Fold this protein.
Amino acid sequence: MSNTRTLELDISKEGAGTCIKVGQGDDGGTTINALIYDNGAEFSLSGATVWLVALLPNKRNYYRGQCSVSGNAATITVDESKLCSVPGYTDEAYFTITKGGNTYSTERFAIEILRSALDGQQPAQNWDDAVQDLIDRGNQAVSSANSAASAANSAASKANSASTSATNAAKAANDAAASATSAASEANTAKQNADAATTAANNAASAANTAKQNADAATSNANAAASAANTAASSANAAAAAANGAAEDATAAAQNALNIANSIASIEPPSDDEVQELREENATLATALVELQDGYIVLGETAYMPTNRRTALSSETVTVAQANVSGETATLN
């Protein structure tokens, strides 16, 4: 419960001089509610600034506190530690009203400050909410300035750190740019090498195609040559077969001629010259046939051999390369 005192005060006439009692040691216990009039009519306090002003009982110090306003009422809960710093009685208490550039004061009223039985009251001094507000705002400004300075120092430190980070980032970016430039140069060199390799590969492919064409042509020629060789071999085989047949026919003819000569000789003996001539012709034919057939021919009691089967000839002795002897029998190979 608070000690609320309601006053009716006029700015244009004097009143009965109401007295309010306030005790030392109270704390927010006294509220003064002043109804303001102007020559008996309610005075609107809208847009006005209202202060409670009281000269303390020692007649040297004062108390001034700001009020809240509503309609024609000005209300203040006093700070007893300041208003009641000096016990006693004062009849010089009033409200000042500043509105529209003008300042008015109400009629005076009295305040009796009751002494506290306890020690510890503050020494008497002037208490002005406006001055205190300036002091408080000054202190707050100093505190804010200190905080701002601290924040500025912190911001400067952060800015320095950011600058260092930015410098490091710039260096890293420059290094990265240099690396990128080097990589681009290497990439260009690699591209040039790749282009050269591509050109070489294309040339090699062209050469390979040419070589393939030449190989195909050579293969075709080889196939043609092989075909021709096969044809020639067939022809040679046919010729060899024909030659062998002719040789066999010649051998048979020589044998028949010898047989005929022998038959004629048995019927009508020829002259020695005729026999000798016939034998020589048979010998010539047999010699040609053994060379042609690469084999032996026996006419009568005479054996004919190719020259490649004979390794040596001395007088009437012939050395044969391939022969087997068993007893009195010699086998010629």
